[in-house]
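Quick question about two entries, pasted in order.
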Amino acid sequence: MAKRHAGSGRKKDKPADLTKIIFSWSLREIFNTNLYRNEVKSILESFQSVEQYFASYIFPLLEETRASLCSSMQNVSRLPFAKVTGFVEGEKNVYHVEVDYWRNRATDNGKEPYKTLPGDVLLLTNAEPDTVPSFDRFKGRWAFASVAGIVEDEDGDPQTSTRFIVKAFLDNEVFDDPAWESIYAVFLINAVTNIRIWNMLHRFGNLNVVREILCTDSAAEKDCNLCITQSHGSGHGSLNKNLFGSLNESQTKAVLACLDTIKSEHGSAVEIIQGPPGTGKTKTVAALLFTLLNRKHRTLVCAPTNVAIKELASRVLQLVKQSVCTNSHGERLLYNLGDMLCFGNKERMKVDSAMEEIFLDHRVDCVAQCFSVLTGWQHCLPSMIDTLNDCVRQYHIYLENERWITSKPNGNDVASKCRSSKKESKPKFQSFLEFFKNRFRSSAESLRRCFSILCTHISKSYLLEHNFQDIKSLLILLDSFEVSIYREKLDSRKLKEAFSSDPSSLKAHTDPLYTSLSIKRRECLSLLQTLNKSLRRLNLAPFMSKHKIAEFCYQAASLIFCTACSSYKLYNVEMKPVSLLVIDEAAQLKECESIIPLQLHGVRHAILVGDECQLPAMVESKLSSKAGFGRSLFERLSTLGHPRHLLNIQYRMHPAISHFPTSTFYNNQIWNGSNVTNKSYRKCHLPWPMFGPYSFINIADGREEAGDGGRGFRNYAEVGVVSMILSNLYRACKSSGEDLSVGVISPYRAQVAAIQNKIGKRYENIRGFTVKVRSVDGFQGGEEDIIIVSTVRSNPCGLIGFVSDTRRTNVTITRARYSLWILGNKRTLTRSKSIWEALVHDAKARGCFFKCSSSTDEVKCILDGKKEDVRLNNPLNGNSFLFRNARWRVFFADNFVKSFRKLTSLRTQVSIMNLLSKLAGGWRPEKSDAGLNPKSCSHMVKQFEVEGLYVLCTVEINTLKEPRYIQILKIWDVLPLRDATTMVERLDSEFKAYADNCISRCDEKCLEGLDQVQAGSGFGADLLNPGSSESLLSMRFHPSSTDVVRHLFSEDDDSEADLASEVTKLNQEMSSQFGELRI
């Protein structure tokens, strides 16, 4: 049984190899969910010893590995596989394998295509995988193999390698049994991380920090507190004032506390920085690391993922480049990056040209070129000295060689035949000026390349500061000399004469130009010779192997970046120990995985940066998850009350978005930054309030269904709504000319795939408009202008699975800057008894809850995801969005319709409709007469300014037989200031026709909370005074119906006919009630 290989966890025991344990499992054991049920125990929050601490992770790790294999083998037909075309036995249990090509490379939606990597666990079988739905009842032949190395293809691309080396325990029957005539290799999992964790749980290396995180009250801790108190503030005067001036108080305190802690000499210490969403966590850590870099403090920086480590390293790299001065042309001078080093998987880290400067593989190639005997600095520097010092003698040698070549008889030489036919013609040779220009440029280019590599990739601690400054000075001198050589009109004979003299004894020339050139030549030579001697004293001997160069790069760097898993490689590197470990996104790293870098030789202090309220590490096994296997060191220490530094100002989210997560997850300890509280911090593209900063849109008629292969869920109703929102956003963005980034988040990959399939490549490579569709995990640490959330689940029982996780919810709703729109089924989410219930109730209480139900067959088709939504296709439909939940009935005057349709800016139209939507909902401004000149203020006419135009409206009496509506809202026109003033005066004069009882009913106000709703009940006698003029009062009005609002935005003049037919029906209903006043 595999359980016999688990080991006791004692230091003296020789641990079993995890790979051998995996290979020992039978199919029955892999599919047995109870295999380790009795051994997996809950992982404690505190431990009595290091042995107990390490041992508590052994069986949860085995169970997690088993569960990962089981999950893959249940979906074999979807896994990457290839047919084996070559299988040659090598050393003991080692085989050289060659396959034809990999099928099913795109495994799960949202994941990168598969490529063979060391540590991959393969299943060798005689059955074609796409014919086997699952291996739980498989009767064919099979065996495990582990990839030990990759052999590059003939084109040198190992990305989809078809040749690799594996380790496997196979019987001879594999080569003799006819049943194994066809062999297929199936990728199951990559076990590198688990294998490295396993090895570290049995290693018992440097335990300084490990013991610190186990003990709760030690003498060392008291001594360190005393040490920190005594050193508090010392050395802070040398901090970068510009950098720290950009940090807020909480960020500055966190950085300074960490700098004080690492000065402790009495023992080890752990600092915790909690960075909630948008609080500048990366900026704070980058400032800390930049300070440590300047102090040459050897530090290892780790993170759970390649994406996280690249983001942080790029931020520090940016600070380094910004700190370098520029020359008079605005160009940045040389910057030294030799103290920074990043290593790992280049493809997964997506190393770009900027990041490449500190990436190990690129640095090794550059340094190898620079240290080469034939092309390196030891060749280029003397060559440049010879060019400047001995150029005249070299020119004479050139002439002699050319004359000898031309005088040498060669019957086949075409050139000599031509010369013989022209006896008087003489061979043409380069002038001294041409010769010198060519030699100088060639030597200068090679020297610049080598010096650029030296200054960029070799740490100043090795290169030395004075050499670095001399190289910068030399490059400036060479540039100046080259400009003079190429731009000035020089005489070849005079230049030769000037350069014939010994550079050390400057000879004056009658022409000041040549005197100046001689001076520059002497200055260049002097600096070249100084550098040649100084660099040779550094013993920068040429390295013969890239392995030695890599070790040199590790040794030279003081700030090293890698994933926590990749830090395992440092155990085999000979270098000066690192004393500080910084783990970014520490709350997303399993505690047992953090043990990998914590045990590195020399590590004395650790700084954990993260947020336990966001995504934890992923755990496949429910049994291991329940035992706490996915818990991070950050979370455990926080639970035990370890002090931490909270970054308490968020600069990302509009206050309407940050309200719920701040109050729910962070106990109202997070403040909004001044940038997000500014009124200009918004992007208005679709109608408010539904598409304002924050809204929950109830998709009540959606249906959840299982994804392909029964994995995950999808909801085509929400897919359709997302698609149409994106379409409207794109049109609005295109019309306004504003840049916009949109993110679509769903907890299920099946829904992500459905949305991606729906929109296709419609929004790819569009300048100023980007759309990213990802799962919640894919958006951790990201942010966009607008976020649309598709919650997917829609069932009467309130079953939402892992969507109920509060940390996933927190990440989901904190990615947006300006707008967050959540699509979901209210009934399902409120019945889930999860955080979503509170979210829906909060949205209702704040007036941010909206319905999107199926009132027609057409909309039902939309919600089934089968048809484009005609109403949603126009972002400003009346009944569907703007006026469905209105508390006032709104009517548009003919004048308003005409003026509105003449507007050329969609943005202005959207803003006007947003205002009308708010008015229809009961909102009223604090100042009722905002906008026009006070002399034009009216008792009846209300005026609202929108982008330089003025919307004129009145509250009047509705004469329809609908008891619900008594007061109505009439929109008369939208006009510029001068025309609006005239219109108000005209309306005021004509409103004198209204009877007093009519005016009093129009003035009645009924408030519900802060909203004003319709007032009144029955009607009195006459509403108009006898004999009144009706030039304006008899104007035709249109209700806020779907057809009317569609007509407002339509560019088709034929829509007038549909509008007229609707108005005719209303007029017939109105005529008996109100004389000639027409709607």
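Here is the second entry:
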Amino acid sequence: MIDQRNRPTSSSSTGQTPPETVPPLRIVTAGSLFDGHDAAINLMRRLMQASGAEVIHLGHDRSVQDIVEAAIEEDAQAVAVTSYQGGHLEFFKYLHDRLRDLGAGNIRIFGGGGGTILPQELAELHTYGITRLYAPDDGRAMGLQGMIDDLLARADQPHPAPLPTDWPDRLAQRDPLTLGRLISWAENRPDFFRKNLTQSLSHSVADSFVLGITGPGGAGKSSLVDELILRFRRNFPEKTLAVLSVDPSRRKTGGALLGDRIRMNAVSGPAVFMRSMATRQAHASVSRHLRDALAVCKAAGFDWILLETSGIGQSDTSVTELADLNLYVMTAEYGAATQLEKIDMLDYADAVAVNKFDKPGSTDALRDVRKQLRRNRNDWQSPDEALPVFPTQAARFNDGGMNALFEFIVARVDNPRGSPAKPIASSESPQPLITPDRTRYLADIVAEARKYADFVAKQTALARQFYQLEGAKTALETDFSELSQKLEETRAALDPACRNLLDEWPEIQQRFAADTYRYEVRGKTIEQPLTNTSLSGTRIPKITLPKYTDWGDRLRWRLTENLPGEFPYTAGVFPLKRQGEDPARMFAGEGLAERTNRRFHYLAQGQPAKRLSTAFDSVTLYGNDPDPRPDIWGKVGNSGVSVCTLDDAKRLYSGFDLCDPATSVSMTINGPAPIVLAMFLNAAIDQQVEKTTLLRPKVGATYRANLPEGHDGLGLALLGTTGDRVVEREVYQKIKAETLKTVRGTVQADILKEDQAQNTCIFSTEFALRMMGDIQEFFIENDVRNFYSVSVSGYHIAEAGANPITQLAFTLANGFTLVEYYLSRGMKVDDFAPNLSFFFSNGMDPEYTVLGRVARRVWAKAMKFRYGANERSQKLKYHIQTSGRSLHAQEIAFNDIRTTLQALTALLDNANSLHTNAYDEAITTPTEESVRRALAIQLIINQEFGAMKSENFLQGSFAVEELTELVEEAVYQEFLRLSERGGVLGAMERMYQRSRIQDESMEYEMRKHTGQLPIVGVNTFLDPSGSPTVVPREVIRASEEEKRLAVEERDAFQARYANQAPAALRAVQEVALSGGNVFAALMEAVKVCTLGQLTQALYEVGGRYRRNM
């Protein structure tokens, strides 16, 4: 590790300012725009802090403008960015140019992006002026700390930089560069600042209002500040505001995590300036230089200045010496009520916010704080509602308590010495996402499973005893009355359902010995053969029954394993696999809608079922429109398809009848799922309008490419309009209703795993959950029976680094959280459970062999015994995608071997559908050749591999049964750990899931690095050249022409509906603020609004995701 040459000296006990020292390096770290791969940059920023740097971490999905604003306002010496989602050439060049153009060309730029940044691109960017980009081979050669040491050495430069000669004029204009450098001079060269600069500042000090905000760590101060800024900007768009935020320095290393900016969504733009400061001393909540920084902001003429102190204790009152109004932010977690007497700020605070008011004990805390305030103020006359104590939930969308607090502050600004203009209304306690009496739902699920296990053990013992008594009676050939009595007592003690399971066994044996099998699915009778005949003439049964004769063994098997299609569905949720339809998915996503549509037709050609699995580019994934701005332009159509309008969605799925039972569509979209789902459903409706009216397009006229083979033009006739404009209202409503009942597919709308695995969050957890509930309510009201409203995903949890048990436990727990939330909204379990599906990653670990078996069993028991759900609701359907983590950039040809093994595991476990990754996905968008090979893997397994002739191949294996029980118990143990933390949402607030995932990711990387975990072609069995990172033969990128067409489509759509869009956007905002069904509003709005317009409209009313560490 490098020398801690820049460690600041702590203040002495006398309080004197120490001699000026070499200041710590200040570095801004971030994930690039539309990039959710935050784990790597999080690790890097921790190492930078440990090496003595002050780090301003911005988190994932950061535009060049975000990074440049932060770097200039924070007066950083360097920025370090991870860019894994493509568009890196444009992104880094644009970042370089923006810093240079704004006079901050001294700030050095570092980055990395795994194997996605090719060697020739690294060289091009270094030549352009990027200081250093690190490649995977650098990591192998230098190690993590070696890369950090190299970065810090290259970033080191004289600091602070010189001020512009006309700095007083620039300061009057609130120039961010001048503000940032002036505060650095105050912070790093205080003697020079006070001697040479203070006098110039004093001539222009404005009458700014200063709000001081303090409170203990973890009280949610930063989120609360962001909510205040949002309301300030909404109510006073002509005014300006500055934020000075203080975080503690690490006494041992001198480094600091300046972690407040990551929480701020409302600080972008010229109206707001933000600066993070480290205390650079021990046991202090403010920087000794904060007063000087405050003077700089006052001299700049800001209307409001917010001072947020570091949260290091309950009793610090330093901020009161600097602020006009003081706000103390706390939670219910302060201990006994007597602890309130020790909080000095309750003597000085003008207002108190009891934040995170949804937590247990908050109502009691509100009462106790009010009592303490009365004692401190000797005020026994004022009613509770008049006391300035506010129950708030800063993390909640449009929180009433936050509204009341903001009104109080505004009133005090207007009337600083008096009381508020009107009595303070106590905000009603909002309905929590999950009611307090049900927060132990995961522990209750475990309890029900334990109860069932006890039931199985007791009933199995009775069945075995019954079998033994019956055998004894038969062997003795004597009718002993005592033996007969014991037989009857044992039979009577058996549960009637268990007796029935035993009694029907001979009939089951006879049924599965027949040539065909008949069963019903949703009222439709299906008949299938029960055997397959090999080339050798062997009749291989599709379902093999156990040959147990002991009734105890039979009963245990039926209660824990059972036939496919029967509770607890361990072997599968259907009696037999559907004939003529492999579980294969046709995966595509690149360029414009037409290119992906052509890929779909290429892959689906000759296949009886069309399972279209769609990957969207990162611009779409983050709810944005294509744009000429370089950091957006570079990502349009790369690593996924670009979709921003309803017409894009129509082109994307054109030529496929979306209401054909043999067609289903899967959309991996996450954050903006409600908007894109509304586009898809409207596209399906308009297809049926086309078919009803016999409208047909001019072939090729509206499809920006040649129509692929098999494309009949369906879906193109209503481009530029919608079905409700070409047919009468009654006709349209009838078509719409029938389409919604018929359309098949799934959308990946699961917000919980996004926040846990840090991927594509764009809306806040609470707001996104609400929209998921709105989708489900819309589905229930419109009888949407064949479309999954959410695919609860473990894939992204696994890809972020989780091991299989953690993936499975977290994903199932997330599913049960949705169940609880939907129940809290008054939905009935059997109305929504069939619309839930799951999405898992497969891998090389042994636990993946039984992942599906355990998932089905855990879900079925919980739904039956905890929720009283019917048989259909007990059946868990899930999709498998082979592991992305096991796709390596070295020896990429070996990736197909791993993918084949993973596909085989998934298919033997009766996964409902499967996507096999292309071997070259580690380094590029898959080529046509690699995608075809990936699809061939599962087709060969399904159609050629002999073991697949059996449909319950894993049943009867001692190893599989033991592994199933071990993994199931491990899942229950994780449920209990989550329950101890308040369930999934409580654990998320403590960042438990994210910490677990990152710890497991680090463990994997360390074992891979040391060779403890052998990976062929990566750390063992290397080729003579050392198996370097492979440069792909063909690099798939969206063309400049495609990007231009995407922007033109956006512009044309917005121009076409320029008169209708504003009203539609306002309607969506009003529905969001009033608590109506946002998805129902989106179904209409997508007809005239683009994806980016709708996303921004929801951001403006406060629905935006707030990043955290």
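Reply: The CA atoms of residues 297 and 1060 lie 43 Å apart. The two ends are 24 Å apart (CA to CA). Hope that helps.
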